[in-house]
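A.,

Following up on our hallway conversation. Structure tokens first:
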């Protein structure tokens, strides 16, 4: 017996309304980048369970801070879980490796890693890739500006021997040269190394006014501790990749005085009331710390939070074109993300476009210093 047309229509609408939005998350919750990945994973539990009337199903996988594992996890989420969106991963090298996977499958991805190379240039592959952390280019400009204002004429560099470290080195060289600052020493080390004495001795031999450590998470403590142990008295800069409680805990007195750029959420309570991100940053901080403990918030979890805000803005737009679980929806979600405007996040105000898949500006960064074991806004 043929079903009445209105019954068929109702069933179709019901199917649309009840379709799950499947989000795959890849983070580094173990391994050298765990101090970054754990707050990202924790924040997933704080993201909305429904968006635009659709139930959201999150599947979280750990890549153990390994690039190959990140690629494997991404393929699994796409092929087995049939996700509509990928969020992750934590590190730059792994995020770069995931680009080909999501581009081939035509699944949009929001990276939680720093390098500008993840989203630029916006070519056919990167057209599927977005990110929420500030780029190394944006943050390096802030560091070089602070160096210039404080009379730094020469700088040494020691950073990871991977895409993160190389990206930071390139941005330091470019921004330093523009301000008349000479890079007089360049050294590299591995994320899992236990000694950098040889590299630090070479840096010190160049007698720089300041040193930038191009690293992230707890492994960034080692070069600063070694510099302090060897009597270096100049300024030590870190990247925004260290802005979490574990870096303070592990580094202790050895990281006192470090200067770094960070997202405003790190010092939300110290921001002036006129700062447009203060309200969102405080709300996220209070929500996170009410669940995970006082002082546990970090900028890395806030990158996941901001990814959730972008998702909440883009999904209802995509739902007007197609339902989750289809290629049409994933394409619509990509388009909606690219068209997202004026989203006030914990880290800044996002205005994405076809040319810019991050959409942050200088309002997304502040300079801070570690003073008495805590973050202090440099005004």
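Then the amino acids I'd put at each of the 379 positions:
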């Amino acid at each position: 017996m043929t079903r009445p047309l209105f019954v068929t229509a109702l069933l179709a609408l019901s199917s649309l309304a009840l379709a799950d939005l499947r989000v795959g998350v890849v983070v580094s919750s173990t391994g050298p980048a765990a101090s970054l990945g754990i707050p990202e994973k924790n924040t997933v539990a704080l993201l909305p369970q429904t968006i635009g009337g659709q139930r959201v199903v999150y599947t979280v996988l750990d890549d153990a801070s390994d690039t190959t594992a990140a690629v494997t996890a991404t393929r699994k989420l796409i092929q087995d879980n049939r996700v509509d969106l990928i969020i992750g991963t934590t590190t730059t090298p792994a995020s770069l490796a995931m680009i080909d996977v999501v581009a081939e499958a035509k699944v949009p991805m929001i990276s939680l890693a720093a390098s500008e190379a993840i989203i630029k240039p916006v070519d056919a592959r990167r057209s599927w890739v977005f990110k929420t952390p500030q780029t190394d280019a944006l943050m390096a400009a802030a560091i070089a500006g602070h160096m210039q204002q404080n009379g730094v004429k020469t700088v040494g560099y020691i950073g990871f021997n991977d895409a993160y470290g190389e990206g930071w080195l390139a941005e330091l060289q470019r921004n330093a040269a523009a301000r008349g600052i000479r890079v007089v020493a360049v050294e590299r080390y591995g994320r899992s190394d236990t000694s950098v004495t040889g590299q630090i001795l070479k840096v010190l031999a160049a007698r720089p006014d300041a040193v930038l450590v191009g690293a992230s998470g707890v492994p960034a403590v080692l070069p600063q501790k070694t510099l302090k142990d060897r009597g270096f008295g100049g300024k030590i800069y870190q990247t925004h990749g260290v802005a979490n409680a574990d870096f303070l805990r592990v580094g202790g007195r050895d990281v006192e005085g470090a200067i770094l750029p960070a997202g405003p959420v790190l010092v939300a309570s110290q921001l002036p009331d006129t700062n447009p991100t203060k309200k969102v940053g405080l709300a996220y901080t209070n929500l996170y710390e009410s669940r995970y403990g006082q002082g546990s918030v970090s900028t890395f979890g806030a990158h996941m939070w901001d990814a959730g805000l972008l998702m909440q803005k883009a999904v209802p737009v995509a739902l007007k074109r197609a339902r989750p679980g289809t290629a049409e929806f994933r394409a619509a979600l990509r388009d909606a993300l690219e068209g997202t405007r004026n989203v006030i996040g914990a880290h800044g105000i996002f205005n994405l476009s076809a040319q810019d898949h991050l959409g942050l500006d200088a309002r997304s960064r502040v300079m801070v210093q570690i003073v008495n074991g805590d973050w202090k806004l440099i005004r």
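The longest strand covers residues 54-62. Curious whether your intuition agrees with the design.

B.
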